[in-house]
Structures are given as C-alpha cells and as structure tokens.
Amino acid sequence: RSIGSELKHGTAGEWLDTAGGRPWAAVLGKVMPYTICFIILVVFMLVLLIRFANLPVYGNMRLVLGASVLFVLAYESMGLAFIALAGNLRLANSLAGFYAGPAFAVVGITFPVAGMPFFARLWHNSLPLSHYMCIFLDQTLRGAPSQASSHALLALFLFTVIPPLLFVPRLARQMRNPACWVKSKHPLHRPL
Which of 10, 36, 74, 103 is deepest in the core (most CB within 10 A)? Predict the structure, then answer.
C-alpha cells in the first residue's frame, strides 16, 4: 500500500527524486520501516505462542526465525508485484485480496494438500503462507530435520527475490511517467 499510495497521490516523481533517481533505493527506503515492524510483530507472535501458549519446538527454532523473516519479505515482494502489474492501488489491492483471500482454504491445514484438486494444489504452491506453514509445522510440532524444510525455505527465498527482480524495472517506468499517477481531487484521498 505504501508504494501504491505514491502513484495514487501523484508523488511518485518526488519519491524517486528523494532516492536520487534510483528506483531500488526508493523501494528499499519505502518498505524498510514496514519490514522491521512486521518482523518484530512475527517474533512477538512466536514468543507468545512458544512461551505463553506452550507451543512445543521439537525442531530448529533458528530455521523458524529465518523463515519468518523470509515470509515477511516474500509477501512484501508479492505486494510490489501487484502494484507494479496494476499500476493502480485500488486494482492492486483487489488482486492481492483475490490472491491471498482463499489462503486458509488451500494452505493445507484444514484439508490435506494431497486430497486437493490440481488447481487448489497449484494455488497452494503459489502462496508464501503455504511454504511458511510447512516450515513452521515441521520445525515446531513435527520435529523434522532441518533438511526436510529446505524445499519450503527455497520457495520462500524465491518469492522474496524473483518479484522485485521482475517488477522493480516496471515500477521504475511508472515512477518516471506522470501519466501513471492518479492525482485524486477527493478531499479524503489527499496525502497527509
């Protein structure tokens, strides 16, 4: 949302100028505070689950922490992809809702993945949450060896790296093109 609001409010050019004309620096500068907050939130939730809800950790807790950081980065990367694809905050939010909305139905917790139809399994594999939950369950409740979670960890890493590589160049073109900016005249849509 923070990136899309720059396009929505017509401030993308200023945002890019603030970063010295470097789109990667602009994106990193914009998402870093959120990344830190979300990682703190995830660690806080893990502490609550383990210390106060007595969730057992039979596996590698460091792997769970590393996967938690990748989980945050993966969803930020997917958000970047949606805003770059849509070029419009409202449409990007709709796409993200469509993408992530049915996550709990296909993540494999309430219904086993092996019993899902092909499309549901495909959707399952397209969600970072599915891979994170695999690592989380393997390393907490199942006590699986770290190697058992390597494929899910690789998937989270790819979700983190590939969308920015593919979509920051597209976003950079949108940041430089005032025709891509929507300057809202509605009083409730003005930047603060």
Answer: 74
* Closest by Cα among 164, 167, 146 to 67: 146
Distance of CA 139 to the CA centre of its chain: 21
CA distance 63 to 68: 8
Structure token pair of residue 45: 């939730």
For 7, 74, 144, the CA distances from 65, given in Å and listed in that order, are 34, 14, 16
139 within 8 A of 59, measured Cβ to Cβ: yes
For residue 8, the one-letter residue type is K
- How is residue 53 annotated by DSSP? S
CA proximity to 65, closest of 125, 157, 139: 139
Mean pLDDT on 78-93 = 90
Distance in angstroms (rounded) separating the CA atoms of residues 143 and 157: 22
Q: How many residues does the chain have?
A: 192
Largest CA distance in the chain: 56
Q: How far is CA 37 from CA 73, 96, 164, in A?
A: 12, 20, 20
